[in-house]
Records
---
Amino acid sequence: MKKHIFKILFLFALSLSVSCEDATDILQEGELTEDAAYRSLADVQSGLLGVYAAYAPDGGGNGTGNSLYANAILGDNLKAGLASNGQGAQDYNYVVSFTSGSIPHNIWNNRYVTINFANRVLGVLDRLTFTGQELVEANHIKAQLLAIRALCHFEVVQYYTTDYSNPNTLGAINMDFVPETSDVFERNTVSENLTFIKEDLNTALTLFDPSNATNASPIWISEDFVKFLKLRIALTEGDSSTANITLANELLADYPLASFGEYIGMYLDVDDTEVIFKLSRVVGDAGVAQLFYFNFPGTGDGFLEMSNELFNLLDAEGGARRQAFVNSASTVVGPNDPANELLINKYPGSAAGQAINDFKMMRASEVQLIKAELQARNNMFADAATTIQELRTARGSATATPASYTNLNVALTDIMLERRLELCYEGHRWLDIKRVGPELGIGVTRNSVDCASFEGICDISSSDFRFTLAIPQSEINGNTAISQNPQY
């Protein structure tokens, strides 16, 4: 609760300091400037909490949202719910929109607002002087700010870059300062983005305090957050170095795969066995379940439901995922029946509220999946198959994994299946198809009953230009130097 209160206070103070730039440079009597707002280490700590508060990949509701919503609605894991009033239909049908409230606007705006907030607090750290233990604490705060700035830049690259493998493709705007409102910028290249991101992460690793008490809790950014993010970046840029397999093993040694009971508890926010980092959501925060429900996870309330196709896969394998992800109040009339009410249970509510759950952003399961893909890309096909089977065994899955994959395509196809099941509704599916789909010759292919629920399109090729989001109209209007993505 203390963290939540500090977040509110910071955002209020920051809004005052930002508004003076938007209106006038004339200093008004009694105006709260950044110099006045930040005078001590405690002030800087409150600033850090505000940066955490700004970052909201799980935000949205009632047919709009950020990256968690985007990966669900643009992929093949959703259908219209029985309570639907058309929520999400435009996005499901890939109707191009990049105005205020659209997916492209929401993701871009949220990441750059978070980057701006982080840069403001980093600027304060550069102005203030600390010594002794306060300097150690200030460096630990700086490390977290650099790490979240790197994360936000990386996510902009993921969504707004046409080709990860081309170093000269336009990606994000590298921002390590607070711009003037009159400034305009072209986007940097992917190569420049990755260099910038890695510099932030490497610097952060030199600043963390291993003895800081926050390291014991997954709601705080730590060295392991940075290691994990490096693995995600490696997959995206195509770095299959065996050194990354070693890094994955280091993380798995500290974060074992959850047991059946621990896994169920994780989604109820009572177990963190395999959680490396999560966004804390408490009383008063928006509930992530409101991306799918009007009020709470339960019958008659879901305007978005699990697709029949995903349900069929989970139902066939059984185990912990079937229990954790499919609400027990669901009604299955028959296989692929349009009357099926398939209620999403990945965010079942918690002690904080019936629609509120922490967003588990980084888990050991994903590390296991990254490790398997890296092994496959190094022709370690038997090892990759073993790694996937370990995850399936931990989940109590009845899906059989071959003793060894016969080639890379077979391996990637099976790993993509496992990623779809394990990481559903966590902001991965659409990005996975964008990244691996061209290699396998697959795009989004929806069950006919699922797409009929939206009267929508069933197939979207991975070569479709809409697999790269548009630069939002608000950015185009205010930044005359920026280039729009092709065909928008």
---
Amino acid sequence: MKIAIHGRNFKEETKPFVQSMFDTLAQKNIELQISESYQQFLSDVDIIHSSNSFYTDKANLFDADVVLSLGGDGTLLDAVTHVGDREIPILGINTGRLGFLAIVSPDKIQEGLAEIFAGNYSLDQRTLVSISSSLNGEPLDIFNGVNFGLNELGIMKTDSSSMIMVRAYLNGEFLNTYWADGLIIATATGSTGYNLSVGGPLVMPSSDIFVIAPMSPHNLNVRPLVVSTDVVLDFEIESRSSNCLISLDARSKVVHSNVKIRMEREKFKANIIKLSGTNFLNTLRSKLNWGFDVRN
């Protein structure tokens, strides 16, 4: 079996669990490849492992059977960009702070590995967004070819005082003009992210929808809108500062406000490993304290 590993910094108390994971992988003679950024951190904290193969991006990621993501949800979003259209299954191990996607706790790593080795897991196929953009009629590659994301597209102001104006079109038909601090267009997976913070709805991950959620809209009658993933969305932007911030999951870039953005469903999906005994409803109850009496 071939396993690729990507991660971020973890706290000292997490170190024994991570070292135990690498010990188990070595005992099982698993062929490993580790992202270079994570390898540097592992070296700094004296984690011992058997890998002498490292990768920087999806171009030199080997043909893994599984990718392990050690961190929070942001780390898993990185892993999705590493995998790209190869659709390699990804297991999220939560050594970070938040885990709607990375739901395996450090003390459950060994149980998770056992299920991986036994093939005792299913795959949640998650919809991705795909964007293309142009500036003054010329193609613009904002994110250097990695123009897809698992959570959301964000169109936001850069000036702390002025709103931006975003004209939105659905399948070529005018939808609305948003005067707001920005606009979030989230997948069902991303409904627990930025979308939730700006008042958008929670959505079951298997739903084939996008949520268009304005950020602090000037008109209070403008509410989040749920649309099918079959649609094509186009956005035109105006800003007093002549620029805006475009984000795709954890990546962002300031561009001229003359930019035009097109968003649609990506042709491929992200395969997130779902272990036995885990489900989205349990995660919601745990992370959002549903069902707990917190009145006192």
---
Amino acid sequence: MPIRVAKRPFLAGVTCRTQGWYLQHAPEVAPNPGLQWRFWVGGHVHERAREWLGEGVMLRRTPLEAAMEDTQQYVADATQQLLFETTFVWNGLVARADAIRRHGVEWDLIEIKSGKFKPDAKVDAEFVDDLAYTRMVAAGAGIKVARSLLVLINGEYRLNGTADPFAYVDLTEQVNARAAEFAAIADDVYAKVSADERPVPEMIFACKDCDWFKSDCVGRDIPDPLFVIPRISEKKFEALKHYERVSRLPADADLTDTQRKAVEVMQSGVPRVNHDGLSVLDLVQWPVRYLDFESISPAFPWFEETEPYQMVPFQYSLHRQDAPGAPVSHQEYLAPAEGDWRLYMTEVLLHDLGTSGSVIVYSSFEKQMLGVLAKTFPVLADQINAVISRLFDLEPVFKQGYQHPAFLGRTSIKKVLPVMVPELSYNSLVVNNGDDALGVFGLMRVKAMDEEFIPAKREQLLRYCELDTLAMVRLHEATAKLRGVS
């Protein structure tokens, strides 16, 4: 039996044959909670979309031969109007259409995505590519495709409202053009992705987000690839890529001022202190609270006034210190997985925050979350806006006041903390990133987690969020020392 290549390795291989090869040959690994949550959301969206599309026949997906047999049988049956999970094979490539609907003697190809429909917004290129791949394989297998349609979640949908949960986007013209591009290179992509030996890799812009770049590919021995330059564009990368790494860039390289400063620090190997940038620390007022939220963005609203993918905070951690060097106390809140906790959480948070002193955060996310709560609960808006007026963002202190070569041009807390406070680490935590945190809470909310695991998972969420605010405490102390303030 010939080797079969599915959509994901093929599409990766269009950009980078090596990445496609890795995806084709990589062993399956257990998904982390963030990925488990995305799988659940995708399955739930597909289930609801099938209900919306109407009565149809669900075909077998496995084994492959049975799936192909089902597809051939039902496509040939003139009485069948709507088929779900059809399977097509062409030249070693396998594609599964979420749905096909009879359109005269042809078929409409339907791809269901969990993205949000926005009128007049440009459709993600990824969605076009997904449909184009399926169209190419289906057409190669003998299916006459009339239209290529994308189904997205309707941004106007509300819980218990009247708007449709989904909306169609006709991508026929774009998909036909892209499918033709794919067909022209399909044989080469298939040959290289399915080969026994890895294709010879080269450094391209797509390496920036590749899981194998640093561990198994061309970036293994490059600690400072050009991708670490802040906000480097693909165009600029292409112009500079012959240098391969930051340490080889000449002084006159075409960079913005921000990029140049970051590169100079990395090349020098010496931290840069800007006391004017650190001087904003003088604005901090005591007692100080350190605040961090965790939030989730449900595809379909959990509450009546929210829209699809609106962020909903479900947890916060709060450290308090009354004066420099004083003891640090901690308060926290983690919502129950049932019901609507938002008002109670907001009231408890306002009590914990008090009415005086700075509220230190890291990035603009907490300000955004407080804004969501103020809009949700107008009766509390004045109190929440008073908190917003007390916010002090610690991240700009690192952007403007202190740059370290080991930051590699970044200022996220995950980059800064290991350098500034090496004794604190997320690595020992089971839940150690925001994506997994929202995944754990989401799975609990939809009852997709065994109850016996929930107490331990809740404790893991609490410890992760606690470390976020403890990290702020220690980073504030570290920057205060740089400023010369005890």
---
Amino acid sequence: RAPNFGGGSVTIPLKLDVMELLDHVDPAARTIGAVNTIVPTPTADGKTILTGYNTDWQGMTIALQFAGAEGNNGVLKEAAMVIGGGGTARAAIYALHKMGYSPIYLVGRNTSKLQKLADSFDASCNIEVLSDTEQVSKLSPDRHPVVAIGTIPGDSPIDPAMRETLCSLFEAGNNPCDIPGPDDKAKVLLEMAYKPRVTSLMQLAENSGWKTVPGLEALVGQGVHQFKHWTDITPLHDFSRRAVLGDEA
């Protein structure tokens, strides 16, 4: 609360612990259960009010939109998928819900943990836990996921049973009876793990024709929103991408 404190960026493992030290927490951050941005506001009596925000979900949204995933605003809803059940998965669910995707499938190793995660969100999020290929095979074509966010470690092998379920989901929309049209959009996976550059999850998705997006793209977007919170200035997204991604931008 020092007079020269201009704001803060909070990283793991402090995103939850810092919340109890703040005066206000934004509703989105409260739902997600994590704060990654602290904004100080001076008051007339010389005090400082600290407000916590979460821009991780906004970074995910920007990265997906930049890759062509527009979300749903109409009557016809498209399905999405979140891989993993940790803290990042909460932000991913929130992002996909805000983009209008429904249902949102959860896939991971611990089904009971995933169910608790699903139950912690409002029923309007329409979250379903998928634990095996049999469940995937029963999905109707209009309920196959078209966008996904990976939140599992990128440097660890994927659990064999989970891998089988993921392969089924990535392949689910590749029905040979479907005739692709010129306006068909590519299915998009946003991989939140930064390393390695191409993870096992990305490879699975690419093998099924999905477009993959590295997690650094989401880092760009969340940083753009952080900068706006601190300065009330919105930086150019392209400039921010070049600053973070360098030659890969």
